[in-house]
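[09:14] KT: can someone run the structure on this one? pasting the chain below
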Amino acid sequence: RVRNSETAAKENEIEALVKTSEALYSSNRQALDALHWGMEAGIKVLEAELVGTQTEQSAIAALQRAYYSVVEKNRMTSHADVITDVAFSPDGSMIASSSGDNTVN
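[09:31] RB: done, C-alpha coordinates below
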Protein backbone atom coordinates (compact mmCIF):
# COMPACT_ATOMS: atom_id res chain seq x y z
CA ARG A 1 0.00 0.00 0.00
CA VAL A 2 2.85 2.40 0.78
CA ARG A 3 4.38 1.60 -2.62
CA ASN A 4 1.05 2.40 -4.33
CA SER A 5 0.77 5.79 -2.60
CA GLU A 6 4.40 6.57 -3.51
CA THR A 7 3.74 5.60 -7.12
CA ALA A 8 0.58 7.71 -7.17
CA ALA A 9 2.49 10.68 -5.74
CA LYS A 10 5.20 10.33 -8.41
CA GLU A 11 2.57 10.05 -11.15
CA ASN A 12 0.81 13.17 -9.84
CA GLU A 13 4.12 15.05 -9.83
CA ILE A 14 4.86 13.96 -13.41
CA GLU A 15 1.35 14.91 -14.56
CA ALA A 16 1.76 18.35 -12.98
CA LEU A 17 5.02 18.83 -14.88
CA VAL A 18 3.33 17.66 -18.09
CA LYS A 19 0.45 20.11 -17.60
CA THR A 20 2.91 22.93 -16.96
CA SER A 21 4.80 22.08 -20.14
CA GLU A 22 1.59 21.86 -22.15
CA ALA A 23 0.29 25.19 -20.82
CA LEU A 24 3.56 26.90 -21.72
CA TYR A 25 3.54 25.24 -25.15
CA SER A 26 -0.01 26.46 -25.75
CA SER A 27 1.01 30.04 -25.00
CA ASN A 28 3.22 30.01 -28.14
CA ARG A 29 5.67 32.38 -26.50
CA GLN A 30 7.42 30.16 -24.03
CA ALA A 31 8.79 27.25 -26.04
CA LEU A 32 12.02 26.98 -24.06
CA ASP A 33 10.15 26.93 -20.76
CA ALA A 34 7.82 24.25 -22.16
CA LEU A 35 10.88 22.24 -23.19
CA HIS A 36 12.41 22.65 -19.73
CA TRP A 37 9.33 21.33 -17.93
CA GLY A 38 8.85 18.57 -20.51
CA MET A 39 12.41 17.46 -19.82
CA GLU A 40 11.76 17.56 -16.07
CA ALA A 41 8.76 15.28 -16.58
CA GLY A 42 10.85 12.94 -18.74
CA ILE A 43 13.57 12.76 -16.10
CA LYS A 44 11.00 11.93 -13.42
CA VAL A 45 9.63 9.12 -15.61
CA LEU A 46 13.12 7.69 -16.00
CA GLU A 47 13.79 7.94 -12.26
CA ALA A 48 10.48 6.36 -11.24
CA GLU A 49 10.44 2.60 -10.80
CA LEU A 50 6.77 2.07 -11.51
CA VAL A 51 4.82 4.61 -13.50
CA GLY A 52 1.67 3.93 -15.46
CA THR A 53 1.83 3.71 -19.23
CA GLN A 54 -0.54 6.67 -19.62
CA THR A 55 1.67 8.88 -17.44
CA GLU A 56 4.77 7.81 -19.34
CA GLN A 57 3.14 8.44 -22.71
CA SER A 58 1.83 11.88 -21.73
CA ALA A 59 5.29 12.89 -20.50
CA ILE A 60 6.88 11.71 -23.76
CA ALA A 61 4.24 13.50 -25.85
CA ALA A 62 4.70 16.78 -23.94
CA LEU A 63 8.46 16.57 -24.33
CA GLN A 64 8.19 15.84 -28.05
CA ARG A 65 5.77 18.74 -28.67
CA ALA A 66 8.00 21.18 -26.83
CA TYR A 67 11.19 19.86 -28.42
CA TYR A 68 9.90 20.18 -31.97
CA SER A 69 8.46 23.65 -31.33
CA VAL A 70 11.75 25.24 -30.31
CA VAL A 71 13.11 27.17 -33.26
CA GLU A 72 16.66 28.33 -33.59
CA LYS A 73 16.60 32.12 -33.83
CA ASN A 74 20.16 32.97 -34.80
CA ARG A 75 23.29 31.11 -35.72
CA MET A 76 26.77 32.54 -36.08
CA THR A 77 28.00 31.10 -39.35
CA SER A 78 30.40 33.79 -40.53
CA HIS A 79 33.42 32.46 -38.63
CA ALA A 80 35.72 29.81 -40.08
CA ASP A 81 36.94 28.69 -36.64
CA VAL A 82 35.71 28.37 -33.07
CA ILE A 83 34.18 31.49 -31.50
CA THR A 84 36.45 32.57 -28.68
CA ASP A 85 34.59 35.54 -27.23
CA VAL A 86 31.28 37.38 -27.44
CA ALA A 87 30.14 40.82 -26.28
CA PHE A 88 26.66 42.34 -26.15
CA SER A 89 25.76 45.99 -26.63
CA PRO A 90 24.39 47.65 -23.48
CA ASP A 91 20.82 47.53 -24.80
CA GLY A 92 21.18 43.92 -25.94
CA SER A 93 20.35 44.68 -29.57
CA MET A 94 23.77 43.81 -31.02
CA ILE A 95 26.35 41.12 -30.49
CA ALA A 96 30.02 41.01 -31.50
CA SER A 97 32.02 37.82 -31.71
CA SER A 98 35.68 37.02 -32.18
CA SER A 99 37.06 33.78 -33.50
CA GLY A 100 40.19 31.69 -33.79
CA ASP A 101 40.22 32.69 -37.45
CA ASN A 102 41.26 36.21 -36.30
CA THR A 103 37.98 37.87 -37.32
CA VAL A 104 35.48 39.96 -35.41
CA ASN A 105 31.83 40.00 -36.53
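[09:33] KT: thanks! The first strand starts at residue 83 and ends at 88.
[09:34] RB: yep, looked fine to me
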